[in-house]
Amino acid sequence: MFDDLRDLYQEVILDHGRKPRNFKRLETPDLSARGDNPMCGDRIELFLDMDGDRIADAAFQGRGCAISTASASLMTETVKGKTAAEARDLAAHFREMAMTGTCPDCGAALEDEMDRLQALSGVHEYPSRVKCATLAWHTLNTALDGGKEASSE
Ligand code: ZN
Prior knowledge:
- The chain is built from 5 helices and 4 strands, in the order αβββααααβ.
- With 153 residues, it is α+β, with helices and mostly antiparallel strands.
- The protein has one domain: Sufe protein. Chain: A, CATH 3.90.1010.
- Helix 3 (84-100) runs antiparallel to helix 5.
- The protein starts with a helix and ends with a strand.
- The mean pLDDT is 91.
- Zinc ion (ZN) is lined by residues 37, 40, 42, 64-65, 67-68, 132.
């Protein structure tokens, strides 16, 4: 069972790593930020269109390993339609899951979202890859702060 699950997660990462969703530039984004993970060489640029406090569209470009690309792809899919506060909340929970492998505080409200992001929970076994997985979410927080440059620290 565990091995099957692992294969499934692997498949999700490979799929999103090879064919990232929302991989494009938004022409006139309301918010944008760059993210840089020098440990691995991952770089992304994130674009957000806002509708009031809600994320109407999210897209990214960049170059990086399969994990950073898959994470950015899954992140942009997950935050579309969310408010800024909900997106920040998800970022915090995702960070916890990436570092520990589980997220006991996530609760039922985030179940669907966290299920989708679960594919990346395996990175907690590889500390050097945690930053690859969290880069997109750091960059999201930076964009929502109105900032421009995020590092993976
Ligand atoms: Zn990486």
